[in-house]
Amino acid sequence: MYTDTQMEIMMIPTEVIWFPLYRLIVKMGLINNMWGIILPYLVVPMLVFFFRQYLMGIPKDFLDAARVDGCTEYGIFFKIMIPLMKPSFAAMGIYQGMQSWNNFLWPMIVTNSIDKITLPVGLQSLLSPYGNNYDVLIAGSCFAIIPILALFVCFQRYFVEGMTAGGVKG
User: Fold this and answer.
1) What is the pTM (predicted TM-score) of this model?
2) Are 85 and 40 contacting, i.e. CB atoms less than 8 angstroms apart?
3) Is residue 14 in a domain?
4) pLDDT tens column, 115-138
């Protein structure tokens, strides 16, 4: 179980670490580069916590039965745990995909050329104090929904599997 200090560390908002993260991205030479946007979001502490909690809810009977059948630890992980975790992978895939796709402030900080900006930053650039281009803004917003909608459609069957599947009776 986590201690209070560990829980407090995991609850630090991402915005708090942006200044040291920005300095690191500058030292790595990733300003105005797509890797400067992608790298900070490859490992998210909340996802690690979520997967740990999901694994804690999986009954140990599966593991014990596999060990009795002679399965190795790697076999247990790849043949039993990974298929049981498909609903959690789907949920976190959709969540992290939405977070990355809708991220506005970090790409705006890291990029400074028009050819490297992301879609939310580009849509924001259509708003100005001198006049707003609403027709293009609404069309762009409608097209911005399509990738997230496709991601959800691809993963929705795993949600249904996770809700309806029961591994252990009783």
Assistant:
1) 0.71
2) no
3) no
4) 888 888 888 888 888 888 888 889
